[in-house]
Amino acid sequence: MVFRRRPGRSVDVWTLSKLVIMWNWRPWSGVVGALALAAGLWLVPASPLDVTAPATACAAAVILWTIWPRGHGAFPWVSSGVGLVSIAVTVISVSTRVDSPPEPEFNASLWVLLEPVVLVVFVYLPVRWSPPGRAGFGAGVAGVAVALSVQRYMPWDDHWWEYVAGSALWLVPSLTVGFVAWYLRGLETQRHRAVADARQAQRMDLASDLHDFVAHDVSEIVAQAQASRMVLAVGNPGLDRALERIERAGLRALESMDRTVHMLRDSGSARGPIGGIADLATLVERFGASGSTRARLMMGESPAVPREPGAVVYRVVAEALTNVRRHATQAASVDVTVEVTASAVRVTVDDDGLAGARTSSRDRGGLGIPGLTERVESLGGSLSAGPRSPRGWRLSAFIPLSANDD
After folding, report:
1. Mean pLDDT of the residues in the chain
2. Which of 155, 214, 373, 394 is the 20 to 30 A CA-CA neighbour of 141?
3. Distance CA 32, CA 110 (A)
4. Measuring CA to CA, which residue among 389, 254, 244, 252 is closest to residue 323?
5. DSSP state letters, 391-406
6. Range(s) of the chain covered by CATH 3.30.565.10
7. C-alpha span between 155 and 113 (Å, rounded)
8. Distance CA 240, CA 228 (A)
9. What pLDDT digit, counting tens, does each position of 125-143 carry?
10. In terms of DSSP H, where are the helices of 97-214?
11. Cα torsion at 342, 345, 346, 351 (round to 10°)?
12. DSSP letter at 102?
């Protein structure tokens, strides 16, 4: 017998049934578990007190298995409910007997051995999967139930410590399973934290790339528009307005980029910049060639500066030049001074723009100066920025070298 699915293709009943079972294997396994429990109750009969607690625990385990992975939030309540049933059976059993309990029959022994095995599963589940605030409650009730269940079968004795020792011994499996669940939970938490840290590092890289590369390129576009307005748009109002719109759009793009970078990164991290002291000449030359502001670099011959502080110096200069483009469009010149001694390096970037016009925007600030300050201070140095007399702006950084030798 076959079922026709498409012309020329068919599937037999056995294959179709296997597909159905594979697609819904967990509910089917739950049905099998329920049937196994029913068969056990029928084939291995015992007294209600011996059967109630393990049968309740097995039924709860079958239900949770069927709905897995849903129901994690219910684990503490199910574990505590199963544990309370076992404790109630223990209380009834101990309170109703008049002398030492007889040895349990064979059928009862099977249920007696099954009960702690299932209960320790309900110790494991909340510790491993439930919210931390409720996990201890559910696991604790189930663990106490395991420890107290031995009291049903201990003979009457005048030595109270024997009862305590018996329950303490039966508590060991619960403690062991709880510790394993807690350890596995910790490993998973560390894995999630490592993934989150990796994603944060990727966001940080993206934020730094946006600021280090794209912002500087957009700044050059703005500079070209500013220079064209002064050179090409004289006497041509239409061209002047078009270039002004380009300039404003570039400045808006830089502001939007700052906001985006603020969202991508947190306040306590700063990635090291690209480049080094050897690249400063190219950086300053590129800045001067991209606009009308004259740029000059004053630095000794090939100063010996370790890699990390040299990279920070490069970033300080790059940030200062970018800010000149953005906030000091009237600046005619920029002087970059790098002084290197045996113990420290000092870099100063001076421009002659209008300090008053820059103060308000500078107070709002972008992401570069706070990030640079953190980076410089992490090397034991200091960074300052502010207006200078009689006009213009100064960005200065001092970085010690004694603690940063490669």
Report:
1. 75
2. 155
3. 20
4. 254
5. SSEEEEEEEE-TT---
6. 197-400
7. 18
8. 8
9. 888 887 777 777 778 888 8
10. 106-129, 132-149, 160-209
11. 130
12. P
